TrEMBL record:
Catalytic residues in the record: S151 (nucleophile), D317, H350
Main localisation: cytoplasm
Site (Important for acyl-CoA specificity): residue numbering on this chain: R319
GO molecular function: homoserine O-acetyltransferase activity; homoserine O-succinyltransferase activity
Compartments (UniProt record): Cytoplasm
Signal peptide bounds: none
Record's protein name: Homoserine O-succinyltransferase
Assigned EC number: 2.3.1.46
Length: 377
């Protein structure tokens, strides 16, 4: 198994406005994307990978001259890997509103000539899926072999099956849910309030003041990181380990190793992630609820789906628990859809979908081999 090697992001510019679910529209925008592997003659081997909250289009490979620049799903995608780029043409697209190249709050609003900041329109999972479809239109891909995503990316994969049912043959949704629970919305709101109440936030127009609300971003990331890990993993990695041999009897200094780890994660995040993007993406998570248009009936919702499905969850993922995946599985079975489901006993919590667990990767490898046989026949 190998890497796809050095990769180069590409850009597409769109002048035709993108209508948004909020009633607003996005004009004169750009989307950044990367591709890996070769598109076959009849364009039947394309797989779209949808990214989660703090990820991007950079799914696999690395950037020349940059250390530690591997794509966020590099352990899954590449020659000989479960999603084999010697068989599949893989596409990663950075969603609008992101801070990794596609048009977002850090860019110039063509209507005002000023940085969007807090004026960037609210975006939803539906809007991202529509934007991705436009990229595929430009690439001449009318039907995808599969749409794959984990967490928020899994929500996008599910939405693809509902909004563009004839444009995909398989939906692979990992560690995801048909909607956020009240507890999940609560975590997102606490994280947003940490950012909004940072004195350097300036109502979302902090760019004009030459500052970044790093304190709020640090706290937001610390809150999020706690929810991505299981209690077992935190206990195994840190337990009650102390920073020093003796107690410092301080309410403000770092005493436990877990505190040090969370602060380190918060510091890193505050250096590269945009505060307005964090607000936009967590709100998109909150809003995702395709069953809402069907009176909350998930079975009626998935009546629109036509593709085959693979869902996978992890036993220790308490943020997107297996029970939420089973809700989707039941709704699909109610509609007599072709669905496979794997519930993997992994200790890593929600982050398990990003890790190289042999059982998890075995499930995906077997499923992609099944898909490959369809276009190789």
């Amino acid at each position: 198994m190998g890497s796809v090697g050095h990769v180069t992001p590409q850009r597409m510019k769109f002048s035709r406005p993108l209508p948004l679910r909020s009633g607003a529209q996005l004009s004169d925008y750009e989307l950044v994307y990367e591709t890996y592997g070769q598109l076959n003659a009849d364009k039947s081997n394309a797989v779209l990978v949808c990214h989660a909250l703090n990820a991007s289009h950079h799914v696999a490979g690395s950037y020349a001259g940059q250390e530690r620049s591997e794509g966020w799903w590099d352990n899954l995608i590449g020659p000989g890997k479960p999603l084999d780029t010697e068989r599949f043409f893989v596409i990663g697209i950075n969603n609008p509103g992101s801070c990794f190249g596609s048009t977002g709050p850090m860019h110039i609003n063509p209507a005002t000539g000023r940085v969007y900041g807090a004026d960037f329109p609210v975006v939803t999972v539906h809007d991202w899926v529509d934007a991705q479809a436009r990229v595929l239109d430009e690439l001449g891909i009318t039907q995808l072999a599969a749409v794959l995503g984990g967490s928020l990316g899994g929500m996008q994969a599910l939405d693809w099956s509902l909004r563009y049912p004839d444009r995909m043959r398989h939906c692979i949704a990992i560690a995801t849910a048909p909607s956020l629970s009240a507890q999940n919305i609560a975590f997102n709101e606490v994280a947003r309030r940490a950012i909004i109440t940072d004195p350097d936030f300036h109502g979302g127009h902090f760019y004009e003041h030459g500052v970044v609300p790093k304190r709020g971003l640090r706290v937001a990331r610390m809150i999020g990181h706690i929810t991505y890990l299981s209690d077992d993993v935190m206990e195994q990695k840190f337990g009650r380990q102390m920073r020093a041999a003796e107690l410092g009897y301080s309410t403000q200094d770092i005493e436990f190793q877990i505190e040090s780890y969370l602060r380190h994660q918060g510091d890193k995040f505050s250096e590269y992630f945009d505060a307005n993007t964090y607000l936009l993406i967590t709100r998109a998570l909150d809003y995702f609820d395709p069953a809402r248009e069907h009176g909350g009936d998930l079975s009626r919702t998935f009546a629109a789906a036509r593709c085959k499905f693979l869902l996978a969850s992890f036993t220790t993922d308490w943020r997107f628990s297996p029970a939420r995946s089973r809700e989707i599985v039941k709704a699909l079975l109610d509609n007599k859809r072709d669905v496979s489901y794997a519930e993997i006993d992994a200790p890593h919590g929600h982050d398990a979908f990003l890790l190289e667990d042999p059982r998890y990767h075995g499930v995906l490898r077997a499923y992609f081999e099944r898909i490959a046989k369809e276009f190789a026949a």
